[in-house]
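Quick one, probably user error.
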């Protein structure tokens, strides 16, 4: 059982090594794998592994389960979502997503008070409908917005993944 079942397919396997760059902070915790789901040309997809080489994790989060789609974890009470995984063998934690520093809203839109940020303790452990609390984690990011073109008239300088422009 995976957190999201979109990767459950039978048939041909596709390599996750398509040359697309992913989040730099996750590169040391990821590896290529054979996927049963075709990878998009603008997608980065990897299997999460810990420093010890383990690929089984518990998922900790600050947020709530979506009412209509309970397999989704969403933010709550105007505080940004935060999700980490814990290696079940070593208890080492890996930050997967922090809505206050990752993504479009953190980069261009939202600002948070110290109170909002400090109260976010990842005290919830994700448990599936089948009562599983340990998972292999597949990370997928899709790059679809060209910030250079979208904001070029609004700012003098913008930093993309490699340089100031």
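Nope, works fine. Designed sequence:
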């Amino acid at each position: 059982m995976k957190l999201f079942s979109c990767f459950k397919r039978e048939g041909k396997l596709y390599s996750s090594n398509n040359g697309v760059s992913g989040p730099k902070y996750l590169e040391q915790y990821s590896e290529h794998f054979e996927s049963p789901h075709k990878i998009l040309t603008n997608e980065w997809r990897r299997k999460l592994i810990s420093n010890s080489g383990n690929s089984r994790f518990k998922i900790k989060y600050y947020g709530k389960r979506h009412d209509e789609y309970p397999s989704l974890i969403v933010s709550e009470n105007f505080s940004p979502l935060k999700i980490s995984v814990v290696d079940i063998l070593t208890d080492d934690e890996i930050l997967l997503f922090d809505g206050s520093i990752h993504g479009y809203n953190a980069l261009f839109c939202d600002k948070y008070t110290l109170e909002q940020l400090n109260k976010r303790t990842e005290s919830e452990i994700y448990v599936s409908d089948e009562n599983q609390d340990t998972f292999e984690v597949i990370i997928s990011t899709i790059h679809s917005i060209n910030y250079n073109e979208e904001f070029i008239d609004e700012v003098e300088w913008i930093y993309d993944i490699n340089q100031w422009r």
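The longest helix spans residues 103-109.
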